[in-house]
Write a structure and sequence with these properties.
By secondary structure, this protein is of the alpha/beta class. Helices cover 43% and strands 18% of the residues. The chain has 13 helices and 13 strands. It has a 6-stranded parallel sheet with strand order 2-1-3-4-5-11, sandwiched between helices. Strand 3, helix 4 and strand 4 form a beta-alpha-beta unit.
Length: 339
């Protein structure tokens, strides 16, 4: 019954939009006689949901989505932005409230938001942004053939490349430490990939899991006391909330920390190979624009967004006695930050 009502609503909405287009047909030619599109054709409603705005990368992605949509004719669209503040119950409520047939599309930033919408089997298309492992997260079966009314962008973490970069900057490290939450599937997949890579190289590592951001400090201290001379931080909303404590412990112990996000470098980790957060948001918006222009979701493959640059924290490097590397050493453009 619910889906039938939503389909009826969608049909009525489409009919009204068509009627509006015909009503405005007199405005379809500009003074030069060239075809133009009336503003009513660009009026639409989009949802944008993040798991937590405390993750600055997610906010940049949201800005990238909205700015790109507006730059492509949707300046008059209604963008409803919701932040679940890392509350699972609130996230479920937000997604459910948007599943009312009034949205043209919903942008979900991160894995948890995307899973919540896809699992709802909504009739409203989902355009996901920065889902590290879409297939593993079961939000899509095949990246090239969207099948769950969802498509979008993946920021699959190039973890082996980050580790290799780490050895170019800090060649003497012998044991890696990983801090993550098992509730964050992005983080779990990243750490498992890192461990598999280190196993192939016979390099030692140890992991510590946290349930809340308050656990991050003690987990970091434990790893360092157990001989980890480098710490790796995956994209993890819970760890990000406690990352200031992590970087403080690392600075005091003179232990470098690498990560999966430029935002976390800005928070005090040493370096990462990063995507441009606004850029991946814009790429996600481009996919929605294709859909709004008439292309079916099934015809818009999901894409993995590659590395844009190395983000390097010069202040952290100085505190650790590490020099800023040259581009020739890293193999990527270097974006230096100071904090």
């Amino acid at each position: 019954m619910k889906k039938t009502l939503k389909k009826i609503t969608a049909i009525l909405t489409a009919a009204l939009m068509v009627a509006a287009c015909f009503a405005g047909c007199s405005a379809k030619n500009d003074k030069n006689g060239e075809s133009t599109t009336p503003d009513t054709a660009k009026q639409a409603k989009f949802g944008v949901v993040v798991q937590t705005g405390a993750n600055g990368a997610f906010v940049d992605m949201k800005d990238g989505i909205i700015e790109q949509m507006k730059a492509n004719g949707y300046e008059n669209a209604d963008f409803v932005y919701k932040d679940a503040q890392n509350d699972t119950s609130a996230l479920s409520t937000i997604i459910s409230s948007m599943d009312d047939g009034s949205y043209n599309a919903i942008f979900t930033i991160g894995t948890a938001c995307t899973q919540t919408l896809v699992n709802l089997q909504s009739d409203t298309p989902c355009f996901f942004c920065a889902v590290s492992a879409p297939v593993e997260a079961k939000v899509i079966t095949n990246m090239g053939m969207p099948d769950k009314n969802a498509t979008g962008t993946s920021n699959a973490i190039p973890v082996s490349d980050i580790i290799e970069m780490g050895y170019k900057i800090t060649p003497d490290v012998t044991k890696w430490g990983f801090i993550y939450s098992t509730s964050q599937i992005n983080a779990v997949n990243t750490v498992e990939s890192a461990q598999k890579y280190l196993d192939s190289k016979n390099i030692k590592y140890e992991s510590a899991t946290v349930e809340t951001s308050a656990d991050v400090k003690s987990a970091t201290e434990t790893l360092i006391s157990n001989g980890c001379d480098v710490i790796f931080v995956p994209n993890d909303a819970i760890v990000q909330d406690g990352v200031q404590a992590l970087v403080q412990v690392c600075r005091e112990a003179k232990v470098p920390s690498y990560c999966s996000s430029a935002t976390t470098v800005n928070s005090g980790c040493l370096a990462t190979l990063a995507i441009d957060d606004k850029g991946i948001g814009a790429k996600t918006a481009d996919m929605c624009i294709e859909y709004m222009n008439g292309k079916a979701i099934t015809e818009i493959p999901s894409v993995v967004v590659g590395i844009d640059y190395c983000t390097f924290n010069a202040d952290v490097a100085e505190s650790l006695g590490i020099d800023t590397p040259a581009k020739e050493t890293i193999g990527y453009e270097i974006q230096v930050v100071n904090n």
